[in-house]
């Protein structure tokens, strides 16, 4: 390279740099749409293989794949990131890999693949809530604020140094889809604002403090079980975090049978007195249906008995009057 070219050539426009985008759910799709709107050069999209969803188990593409197909962007869906995949990836000449909720840890060869490295946008204020379910866990723990982090990927689980963060407040009654939407748009804005500086090499990432780190688990269906020795606020936070999936449920002993009942819509009622009721006991007060907890109670609005349709709670008790006074487990 000549002296003139090295010191006086114009740096490449960040929007012309070849990006391969890795992501899967709605959170990632919103980030991808923002990049496309800003005319970044997305050479290919890598997303998880199509999966069966719903009761009919219909195979559907990921939200990221849907965005890519609408924009005529090549889609790669490897089951494993190995040598064969890297050979395919090399055809797209990625200079940067941008990641948003892809769902797998990158092997070392992939981390070293693009010259600008791998940048990840994560839905928490790292080092808090590393892992697969940061939004749900922030809600479960009753956090008053959360946010997104733009970071450099390394071999660990969300352990890389951080370029930038953006904080948002959490409202007491916000459900997961509402928080997800706000965080996704916050992530998109942060990525768009910071990416040019990162690509120009003008921003050095700051290492995380591992002593402050927390790790969150992959959400399972059984995580939605309610334990009535929890407080009403804890039960309600579980409802907020797991709405609409996996949802929350409890067990009702009806005669000799123990039935699973989903709580489709509930309200937090910390103001209702529950001293005379056992934890988990269902009771009526001013025509409203409540369940007592260790502190405060939950008002039931819609429920669904296993194998049955969703019902307004008053319609439900008309056909199951023994529900009032029972103790849920």
Describe the structure.
There is one protein chain. With 329 residues, the chain is an alpha/beta fold. Helix content is 26%, strand content 27%. It contains nine helices and 17 strands. The chain has helices at residues 3-8, 26-37, 63-70, 83-90, 108-111, 134-140, 176-199, 232-241, 313-319, and strands at 19-23, 42-46, 51-53, 58-60, 75-76, 96-100, 118-122, 130-131, 145-152, 162-169, 215-216, 248-254, 257-269, 282-285, 288-292, 297-305, 311-312. The relative contact order is 0.10.
SSE map:
Elements: H1 3-8, E1 19-23, H2 26-37, E2 42-46, E3 51-53, E4 58-60, H3 63-70, E5 75-76, H4 83-90, E6 96-100, H5 108-111, E7 118-122, E8 130-131, H6 134-140, E9 145-152, E10 162-169, H7 176-199, E11 215-216, H8 232-241, E12 248-254, E13 257-269, E14 282-285, E15 288-292, E16 297-305, E17 311-312, H9 313-319
Parallel strand pairs: 1-2, 1-6, 2-5, 6-7, 8-11
Antiparallel strand pairs: 3-4, 7-9, 9-10, 12-13, 13-16, 14-15, 15-16, 16-17
Helix pairs in contact: 2-3, 2-7, 6-8
Jot down its keywords.
alpha/beta; 7-stranded mixed sheet; 26% helix
Give a short synopsis of this structure:
Helix content is 26%, strand content 27%.
* Helix/sheet category: alpha/beta
Overall helicity: 25-40%
SSE order, one letter for each helix or strand: HEHEEEHEHEHEEHEEHEHEEEEEEH
Largest sheet: 7 strands, mixed
Radius of gyration: 24 Å
Integer average pLDDT: 92
- Strands side by side in the biggest sheet: 5-2-1-6-7-9-10
Strand tally: 17
């Amino acid at each position: 390279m000549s002296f003139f070219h090295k010191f006086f050539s114009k740096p490449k426009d960040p929007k012309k740099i070849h990006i391969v985008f890795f992501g899967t759910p709605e959170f990632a799709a919103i980030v991808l749409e923002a990049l496309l709107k800003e005319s970044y050069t997305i050479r290919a999209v890598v997303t998880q293989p199509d999966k069966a969803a719903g009761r009919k188990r219909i195979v559907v593409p990921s939200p990221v794949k849907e965005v890519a197909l609408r924009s005529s962007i090549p889609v790669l869906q490897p089951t494993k990131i190995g040598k064969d995949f890297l050979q395919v990836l090399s055809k797209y000449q990625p200079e940067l890999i941008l990641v948003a909720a892809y769902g797998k840890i990158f092997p070392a060869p992939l981390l070293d693949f693009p010259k600008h490295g791998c940048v990840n946008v994560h839905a928490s204020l790292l080092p808090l809530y590393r892992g697969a379910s940061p939004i749900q866990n922030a809600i479960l723990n009753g956090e008053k604020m959360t946010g997104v982090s733009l970071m450099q990927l390394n071999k660990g689980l969300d352990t890389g140094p951080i370029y930038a963060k953006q904080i948002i407040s959490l409202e007491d009654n916000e459900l997961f889809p509402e928080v997800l939407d706000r965080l996704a748009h916050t992530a998109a804005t942060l990525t768009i604002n910071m990416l040019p500086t990162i690509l120009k090499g003008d921003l050095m990432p700051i290492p995380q403090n591992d002593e402050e780190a927390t790790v969150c688990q992959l959400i399972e269906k059984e995580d939605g079980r309610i334990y009535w020795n929890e407080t009403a606020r804890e039960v309600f936070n579980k409802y907020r975090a797991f709405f609409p999936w996996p949802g929350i449920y409890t067990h009702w002993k009806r005669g000799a049978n123990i039935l699973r009942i989903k709580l489709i819509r509930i309200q937090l009622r910390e103001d209702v007195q529950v001293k005379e009721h056992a934890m988990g006991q269902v009771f009526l007060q001013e025509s409203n249906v409540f369940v007592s907890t260790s502190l405060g109670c939950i008002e039931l609005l819609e429920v669904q008995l296993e194998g049955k349709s969703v019902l307004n709670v008053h319609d439900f008790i008309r056909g199951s009057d023994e529900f009032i006074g029972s103790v849920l487990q």
